[in-house]
Amino acid sequence: MSSGVHVRVVTRDCNAVATLSNITCAGTDCGKLGRFSCRNCGAVKYCSIQCQKPAWPQHKKYCQAIQAQARQTAELAAELHACPLGWSAEPEDLFQTSVGHFWGMLHPRDYCRARRKLMSTLREYGHEGNSQLALKLALEHALDLIWLTRGDNQGLRHDVPHLQISLGRLREAYDFCKWWLNLDADYDPDDLELPYLDLRGEDVAEELDNLHIKEWGCTSLLLGVALVKLCVMMQIKQVEAFVLGLHDRVGADSPKLHSLSMAYAPWQTRG
Ligand SMILES: [Zn+2]
Ligand SMILES: [Zn+2]
């Protein structure tokens, strides 16, 4: 089901801004809500000093790398805000005039490369350092880069679904994979009038035949679809176990057991 042209607005030219609320603490086996973020890199949240302190030796090397790469990306972005395009032309703000065409214009390529590097570091740290915040930031950077460069010349579509799945955003991952897999070979990414990443709320449970896959060669997107379906299947199994009272933790509270005990209660009291 399509819902019109996607209206993502690129408002950030060098910094991704993840939603800072509801971020889980990166402390080992903590699971509490993160209350404060690293003031140097802003890529991790902890609930307390007790969780932050033991994680520091590992965070330290990433913290420095993330800061350096973010600084470099910001410097390159500043150049694109006032980019001289010719002898007579006034400098242009490419973030205002050229969204979608960043790779084809050559000038912004160094910026795209630097921002992609920052995204990769955040993703790596997110997995290694258990930082949900770093994964969210990595995803935002990747989505922004794809929006700035519609042809996705840097191949970020291979990273996005796996970040979305890591963050539990299964529906978004499915919509994203389906859009790319269904793409016609003659689709022109330079034509900004054409729909772009506009699938929303696609049926995760649909048959593979319904996908109309045109790009079978893209294993990372196919893997994304398979992972989403597997995750949904596991979630259904959990709900099933809950309803039937077979779940380890919530079995005793299951509606099925509850209704059974209600049904048998009068009988038992009579006995
Ligand atoms: Zn904690
Ligand atoms: Zn840091």
Account of the protein in words:
GO terms for molecular function: zinc ion binding. The chain is mainly α. It has a domain at 36-168. It is 50% helix and 1% strand. It has helices at residues 49-81, 94-97, 109-128, 132-148, 160-166, 170-181, 219-244, 255-270, and strands at residues 36-37, 45-46. Strands 1-2 form a two-stranded antiparallel ribbon. α1 (49-81) runs antiparallel to α3 and α4 packs antiparallel against α5 (160-166). It binds zinc ion (2 copies).
Q: What separation lies between the terminal Cα atoms?
A: 57 Å
Tally of DSSP helical segments: 8
**Bound compounds:** zinc ion
The share of residues in extended strands comes to under 5%
Mean pLDDT across all amino acids:
84
Describe the main β-sheet briefly. Answer: 2 strands, antiparallel
Mass-distribution shape = flat
Query: Considering DSSP H and I runs of 4 or more, what fraction of the residues is helical?
Result: 40-55%
Any idea what the radius of gyration is? 23 Å
The SSE string, one letter per element, is EEHHHHHHHH
**Parts with pLDDT < 50 across at least 5 consecutive residues:** 1-11
The strands making up the biggest β-sheet line up spatially as 1-2
Strand elements, count = 2
Structural class: mainly alpha
Task: Give the secondary structure arrangement, pairings included.
Blueprint: E1 36-37, E2 45-46, H1 49-81, H2 94-97, H3 109-128, H4 132-148, H5 160-166, H6 170-181, H7 219-244, H8 255-270
Antiparallel strand pairs: 1-2
Helix pairs in contact: 1-3, 3-4, 4-5, 5-6, 6-7
One zinc ion (ZN) binds at residues 38, 40-41, 43, 59, 63.
